[in-house]
Automatic annotation (TrEMBL):
Belongs to the group II decarboxylase family. Signal peptide: none annotated. Keywords: Aminotransferase, Decarboxylase, Lyase, Pyridoxal phosphate, Transferase. The keyword Lyase applies. It comes from the Bacteria. GO terms for molecular function: transaminase activity. Its cofactor is pyridoxal 5'-phosphate. Pfam families: Pyridoxal_deC. This is Aminotransferase class V-fold PLP-dependent enzyme.
């Protein structure tokens, strides 16, 4: 066996990474090759003998250049996807280098302690109950799953049913209440947890996607038994917030568990000027968020926060004779998440929070919102262009020519043109372009350049 270190292939990867980052600000944002072209370049029968590792990395990098969307570009505005802070990327490189399984303290005391400190900082930053427990999961989907698993345990425990031991067959019926504007990850999490979606109790939402508190109150008078209410901080289309304080009061009166999906909206709590949007959110029982979206750390980086740590642990914890699990103050991450084998994903969060500080996070959030308002102002000033939502956060919904076909053509044309990238959606029954400004590097010039390109595509359609 050779004792040579794999320096050449690491150097090759480093050079490709540097080239990508150096050109990120000016590169074509959308992908330029599709499935067939990429498959032709990347596919071959699995060889009997391996290839040179550096050549493999060269091949991957060459096809990534033309086959991927530059989601970390400062002019990428699709799907509420943030970029990556340099300090977070550097920390994540080390996470892969150290190759720690962060499942239990005995494997990696370092990872466990970093996670413990990151928990403290996040609860402080969001001003949530300090006794809350936190799990670092893959993304918003698993954050919602984890929180709702804790909710399921809690509401059934309180009526004498142990769902972890006895399952759902024969259990008391649990009422699940969601908003008509809820994100799809809520539905998926509920399916994973065995509730299904056919029997969900759906509350009306207003024209900004906010749950109507009065409709929730009326619904609650018709329900009896264990109940979980799912509210939202940051509608995925409009950025709007449910009336969280009113909803919390209704939930408490009904002795229901209140979960808040705050995938990106929870970060408003880090801004003095925006925190009012999330007024009352601290009264909930659980919260989900995604650090990739607005803290701008690499994938994957969801966060599940639960006020009632005993219920959280009971829903997640697993144990076995071959595991070395702590009985002391040490943190075993397996107690708070669905996975045992997992990346030390709290390390980039720790690094970013430490590098930015409270002021830096606040500026990051405020800057994204300012750039979203700038985009809405520039596009909305053009004849025939409508801004469909109140731009309260980092989301802007844009309609062109008051026409579905025209709007979809603009979205497609912008993606092909490559100056920026925005996604399409349906909002209140109408086609719209969805612009999400979530990248730390997006500047006023990026918005100006992008708005000009979007309007150029729209104007070209008008002259046909």
């Amino acid at each position: 066996m050779s004792n040579d270190l794999p320096d050449p292939v690491l150097e090759t990867a480093h050079n490709h990474a540097k080239d990508y980052l150096d050109g990120l600000a000016t590169r074509h944002v959308g992908s330029q090759h599709g499935r067939d072209e990429l498959f032709a370049k990347l596919h071959s029968p699995l060889a009997a003998h391996g290839e040179d590792p550096s050549a493999v990395i060269d091949l991957l990098a060459s096809q990534a250049e033309v086959g991927m969307t530059s989601c970390s570009s400062p002019r990428y505005f699709g799907f509420v996807i943030g970029g990556t802070q340099p300090v977070a990327l550097a920390a994540d490189w080390l996470v892969s280098t150290w190759d720690q399984n962060a499942g239990i303290h005995a494997i990696s005391p370092f990872s466990a302690v970093v996670e413990e400190v990151a928990v403290e900082w996040m609860l402080d930053l969001f001003d949530l109950p300090r006794e809350s427990s936190v799990g670092f999961v893959t993304g918003g989907q698993m954050a919602n799953f984890t929180c709702l698993a804790a909710a399921r345990h809690n509401v059934l425990r309180r009526v004498g049913w142990d769902v972890e031991l006895d399952g759902l067959a024969g259990a008391p019926r649990v009422n699940i209440v969601v908003s008509a504007g809820a994100h799809v990850t809520i539905d998926v999490a509920l399916r994973y947890l065995g509730f299904g979606t056919r029997s969900l109790q759906i509350v009306d939402a207003d024209d900004q996607g906010r749950m109507r508190a009065e409709s929730l109150r009326d619904l609650m008078t018709t329900l009896d038994g264990p109940t979980i209410i799912c509210a939202q901080a940051g509608n995925v289309n409009s950025g709007s917030f449910d009336p969280l304080r009113e909803i919390a009061v209704i939930a408490h009166e009904a002795d229901a568990w209140l979960h808040v999906d705050g995938a990106f909206g929870l970060w408003a709590r880090a801004s003095m000027s925006l925190s009012e949007l999330a007024d009352g959110i601290e009264l909930a029982d659980s919260w989900s968020t995604d650090a990739h979206k607005w803290l701008n750390v690499p994938y994957d980086s969801g966060v599940a926060i639960v006020k009632h740590s005993a219920d959280h642990r009971a829903a997640m914890r697993s144990s076995a004779s071959y595991l070395i699990q702590t009985q002391g103050a040490e943190r075993d991450s397996i107690d708070w998440v669905p996975e045992l084998s997992r990346r030390a994903r709290a390390i980039p969060i720790y690094a970013t929070l430490r590098a930015l500080g409270r002021d830096g996070v606040e500026k990051l959030i405020n800057r994204g919102c300012a750039r979203a308002r700038q985009m809405a102002d520039l596009l909305g000033a053009e004849k025939g262009v409508q801004i469909l939502n109140d731009v309260v956060l980092n989301q802007a919904l844009v309609r062109f020519g008051d026409d579905d076909e025209t709007t979809r053509a603009v979205v497609s044309g912008v993606q092909d043109e490559g100056t920026c990238w925005a996604s399409g959606t349906i909002w209140n029954g109408q086609a719209a372009m969805r612009v999400s400004v979530t990248n730390w590097a997006t500047s006023e010039e990026d918005i100006s350049q992008s708005a000009t390109a979007i309007l150029r595509v729209y104007q070209s359609l008008q002259t046909r």
